[in-house]
Amino acid sequence: MVEEKIAFTVSEASQAIGVGRSLIYRLIAQKRLAAIKVDGRTLVPASSLRQLIATSPAAAINIKPGKNP
């Protein structure tokens, strides 16, 4: 049985949402992403990552026929 992670290290969080570690730290500093310290490690709750993604505005993507890779 595979259990879902409830918290991620900063490196894991950055990989999970496809951004750099510095952005994760910036989002934490801006209070846009929750984080806790456990024995010197910074952990990001999975629920905080989900909330960040759910509440972020969707980017408009302009796709032109025949111009996509």
* Number of domains as seen in the coordinates: 1
**Amino- and carboxy-terminal Cα gap:** 39 Å
Helix content: 25-40%
Unreliable stretches covering 5 or more consecutive residues: none
Per CATH, what is the topology?
Answer: Arc Repressor Mutant, subunit A
Strand segment tally: 3
Level-2 CATH architecture: Orthogonal Bundle
SSE succession = EHHEEH
Kindly name the structural category: alpha+beta
Q: Describe the main β-sheet briefly.
A: 3 strands, antiparallel
Chain-averaged pLDDT? 89
Structure report:
With 69 residues, the chain is an alpha+beta fold. The protein has a single domain (7-55), classed as Arc Repressor Mutant, subunit A. Helix content is 39%, strand content 16%. It has three helices and three strands, in the order βααββα. It has helices at 10-17, 21-29, 46-55, and strands spanning 7-9, 36-38, 41-45. A three-stranded antiparallel sheet has the order 1-3-2. α1 packs across α2 (21-29). The longest helix is centred in the C-terminal third of the chain and has 10 residues, at 46-55. The protein is globular and about 50 Å long. The chain starts with 6 loop residues before the first strand and ends in a 14-residue tail after the last helix. The model has no long low-confidence stretch (mean pLDDT 89).
